[in-house]
Amino acid sequence: MEARSIVIGVEGMTCHSCVQAIEQHVGKMNGIHSIKVSLEDKNAVIIYDSKLHTPATLQEAIYDMGFDATSAGSSPQPVLPDTIFITIPTQSALTSSEIRSALLKIKGILDVKMSSDQKSAVVTFLSSIINGKQIIRMVPGVNLNISAPEVTPGTCEDPSWSHANSVLLRLKVEGMTCHSCTSTIEGKIGKLQGIQRIKVSLDNQEAVVVYQPQLITAEEIKRQIEAAGFTASFKKQPRPLKLNAVDLERLKNTQTKGSDTAPLKENPTSVNDTETVVFRIDGMHCSSCVFNIQSTISTLPSVTSIIVSLENKSAIVKYNPNLITIDVLRSAVEAVSPQTFKVSLLDKYENVALFPALASPLKSVKDAGQPLTQVVVINIEGMTCNSCVQSIEGVISQKAGVKSINVSLANHNGTIEYDPLQTCPEDLRSSIENMGFDASLPEKTDLPVGITQPTPKEQLESAEPTSKMLQKFVAKQESKTLSKCYVQVTGMTCASCVANIERNLRREDGIHSILVALMAGKAEVRYNPAVIHPSAIAELIRELGFGATVLENSGEGDGILDLVVRGMTSAACVHKIESTLMKTNGVLYCSVALATNKAHIKYDPEIIGPRDIIQVIQDLDFTTALVKKDRSAGHLDHRQEIRQWRRSFFVSLAFCVPVMAMMIYMMVVDSQLSDAHKHRNMSNEEMEAIHSSMFLERQLLPGLSVMNFLSFLLCVPVQIFGGWHFYIQAYKALKHRTANMDVLIVLATSIAFVYSFVILLVAMAEKAKVNPVTFFDTPPMLLAFISLGRWLEHVAKGKTSEALARLISLQATEATIVTLGPDNILLSEEQVDVELVQRGDIVKVVPGGKFPVDGRVIEGHSMVDESLITGEAMPVTKKPGNTVIAGSINQNGSLLISATHVGADTTLSQIVKLVEEAQTSKAPIQQFADKISGYFVPFIVVVSVVTLFAWIIIGFVDFEIVEKYFLGYNKSISAAEVIIRFAFQASITVLCIACPCSLGLATPTAVMVGTGVGAQNGILIKGGEPLEMAHKVNVVVFDKTGTITHGTPEVMRVKYLVESNRLPHNKMLAIVGTAESNSEHPLGAAITKYCKKELGSETLGTCTDFQVVPGCGISCKVTNIEPLLYRKNKMVEENNIKNVTLVKVEEHVEESVQPALIIDADLPTSMTSQKYSVLIGNREWMTRNGLLLKNDVDKAMIEHERRGRTAVLVAVDGVLCGLIAIADTVKPEAELAVYTLKSMGLEVVLMTGDNSKTARSIASQVGISKVFAEVLPSHKVAKVKQLQDEGKRVAMVGDGINDSPALAMANVGIAIGTGTDVAIEAADVVLIKDDLMDVVASIDLSRKTVKRIRINFVFALIYNLVGVPIAAGVFLPIGLVLQPWMGSAAMAASSVSVVLSSLLLKMYQKPSSEKLEFRARGQMKQKSPSEISVHIGIDETGTGTRKLSLMDRIINYSRASINSLFSDKRSVNSIVLNEPDKHSLLVGDFGDDDDTTL
User: Fold this and answer.
1) Which are the catalytic amino acids?
2) For residue range 644-655, what is the model confidence (pLDDT) as tens digits?
3) Residue 1435: other Cβ atoms inside 10 A
4) Which helix (H) or strand (E) holds 1122?
5) How many CB atoms lie within 10 A of CB 1110?
6) Could you tell me which of 62, 10, 12, 11 has the C-alpha nearest to residue 32?
7) What's the rounded Cα separation, in Å, for the pair 1083 and 1062?
């Protein structure tokens, strides 16, 4: 409780009646200690409790009475409280609690703390309102005279507790900034011998110390505080202190480790003598508070352990009730520095004896004190492979009460640890039998888990789980609200990591939900703080093999809303809005500014949305609007820079043109005079006379000609206004000890200007008759050309970002939100800003409109143009269930979509973010260019200085050289001046022509255009490095499933094993389709899809008694297929009657056109439903059910498996009647893509977890000759590394889910077929379209871009390597001379030419499939099996193989042997052994031409 004082200005008071009214009204309010109102000063001085009131609420209270209240320009000041100690006589009529409540009712008393024996109290009060004597008078039966506390038997009194000679010292301590500082001082000083108590106040900047002067001096205490890094001074002289019972109690409980107190002797007690109490502690702010409490309380001899949780504001204390009571423990915690903690018992916790000492709930016998769990071993028969093991473990572990399960395939049993209160062995046994296995219980079932006394080490290890169990107990007694925390997770590479974390954490007690964001590397967890705390959550994630840290600053995942609020008139309005919003569930923070009419709100998007918040404010009669955000992508088009440089150019040009005109005029005249002199038509004297009589050469003052004066006047504005930007940038560069292009420009122009100005002043001082030669023409021309170059450069740069700007402009600005009633009836619709769309909203998109958010179609059919996002030119059909991408354009039908990703989570926003990051990242070649640029400027300055001195020396040694090559030389100028002028001209030209800009622009402009063009073509390249690296690639490794193949199984062939008159083919398809409709297995889904397509129906029959046995098959009963068959045959008959042409009547259709064989003639009127018993599965399943396979059927199955297909058998009513072959099909463009890559000189490799037969079959179809088969996911990385160790640059192409570690390891990782954050994180290149030809395009684009970068470097280097020597005068003998303005023009041209060169990349067209097919016609051919080299597993990894690979190899070999015995079981086992792909048990995707259709 902190008291503060505030002065509030009050206007509108007319008499003392007003004063009394305010004092009475405000004084009655809870938390107001004192109020004094002054009519003369028109103010009110209020002392109030800062936890209950703020200055705004006090102003509002006065305002509500009809007076105007203002803050009077003062801020709240803390009011320092005093304390007194009172004793309660045993004969007192009032109980201690009655005395406490009576004291707290008195104005001015802030707090009353009672001692554990209820015989004394500490009263904290405000001395400005009340004093100690008044307190005693108001509460009869108490007094201030404290006697020494009685020593109760059983406690040992230590002499150091004697307070007779104790002294109280107050010190002023300066330099403290936070509670960590106070803890540091208290910890350091508290350990000193002779220190009995110390309390440091951060607010008052003081320390109060109780010490024994015979052991330590005040000066020593002061010196020790200063040694800790703070400034200390005495406030008051030390005075003797009289301690009381409460203070002694506190001293005992806060005794530090360094003190000399004798600890209480601990009685030897067993674990049963300890009890546990859970305290709620308010007032903790950081880990420092947690540490202080834990370190202080744990030193008490009666405390066994203490666990303090900052997040849950709780402390769990194990203590010996024989040595200490709960009240004393509570007081001890409250006395811990800085003594601001409020400690209370949790609800329903007063009877602590009911809560025995529990220990860790870890699932292991070694964890001590575990609640009684039981273990049962169940015998399980019928398991054939690891798939069976995983299935049993997966299903049983989900059952209530099951703590853990471990199934052994070798021992044919399962060991289950369970809670006997929730389940029993018989229930577990029957659950396993229901899965299709034989399960039996042994004679002795239950093994109670032994409870052992933990060793200290184990006790320490189990501390955290202990708190978890205790908190579980608390959670059952009181319903706690859920809390949310954020955990930073590192080490995630793909969606399987995300799924792994989410799946495992959801199983943990106390975790309500978890959402992991791969891109942000962050997990948002909603949890029950009574059961688990964030640090335990982070530990659980770390146990899964990821790095995890709790984010203290968790607001990052919160929604932020900025609003403009109209209609506010005073601070009362602000308070009204803030208080209402803060009371609203889901609003975390709110700040409203009256001056700017803006509100900044943080909220939890899972609880409340932006529209709800706006509605709350509008309900208060204020109008609101969103703060508009700039969606124009203006930062990309360089508008501001273009405007700035255009203005700079025209300013410089305005002054440059007259200077150039005068210069050209003088050059022409000098040239004519030189010609006349050469032809002997004019003497030197006549020439000088004509020269000096010219208007521009006339002297206004001695030494000051018209030409020089005009040049000076024209140069000054350019130097100041035109060169202003260069001076600022050059200053900033030099301040950071770097040199850039601007430094060179400033050097050149400043030297020319200063040199000319000084020469002119010298000539005027000497009253020279001959006008000096100046360089005032150089700065205007130089700055004009440079400004022109920068202007053109920024115009071109704006073009390079067009692709990104176009992507950003795709974002819709508004959305139509609709409300739906029953049966999707439209009730209302509303136009809202796109930022106000919330997840789950139903959005209506009309024809021609843009999709504002990502979503799923719930109603309507339309065609959607996604070309700007995916690069797909053809419109895509959208129907209910399809997903749509924000920014795509709806074409011809209205759609209702349910928003799934909004704001920054949409695919478009992620693409924009990715492209922005790519364009700002640097390619390695650019880093080299940047390094050159760093040394370039100093080098050029050195060259310039060398040039200056070289020509001065050459001129004085041999003047004829300068005379010969110096344009416009005349005899009227002295030789020394000619030499100096020529040397300066050469050195300034060197500074002008040098251009590090073009070097710096060579790479980033090409990268920007390259990534932009890529994004337009559906190829997202993550920056310069992968763009540059892709052209160096010489091996392309393809994953199989989902990359070379579609990744979804399809029915390739159906073989009927019974005659059609016994079971018509349509009837069998109806039965099989219905049976598999309940299956979640990919093979089942493929069969159902095929049957629906063949029967032309979306609905099938009824399936009952459905049972699935993992690794074997399904069994069920099928009914109600007759209506389906009737509709099918009716349709066929109608088609035959209409004689529709171009219908290919296949065998199964012909046979099904015989209604008599299928149904009776009167079926439509009296349709009888027949029940069929269906079995679908592998050989094992049929054998188990007593069905024997004929040799021809077995041969057919073996043949399909050889081709990489999964063969499934069908039995109806005990008769084997069909064989269905299923495979994953190769993508149509795969063969062309592989051929094109090979023709580009690249080696192509197939890497898969599937068996060698399947891999060989796939490779032969697409033309790949090198295959790595049966590679475990953990070894894909090793395979890529192996190729890299051979000196190859590897590009890995995968579907971005299970291949992500290999994608990350490869030199270039290419994720195909996804535009989601799954692939974005692991890969370097993301192909939005599911098209393998984009792999070719990405490598081709990289090659073109790198070629363009090299051309750019040639441009940049030619200008510098050729231009600098010419400028320095190296080529004077062959007549090559440059003026400074020519140098600046050349420099500007270099930058512009580099950018224009980069812009040529915009013309890039990715290779079209049609052209490539035409080129490859007749050359593509399938490989024969003998041409394909297949490498099994990790056999070639060499010495670098990890130890784990030995086990993997054993598994591979054992799998191969099982395959040879049960070839159909291979496909089932592989998903467990490999887990390489989404559908690895499909094993195949291909068939020969004669076998791909029915």
Assistant:
1) 1039
2) 888 888 888 888
3) 13
4) helix 1122-1138
5) 21
6) 62
7) 26
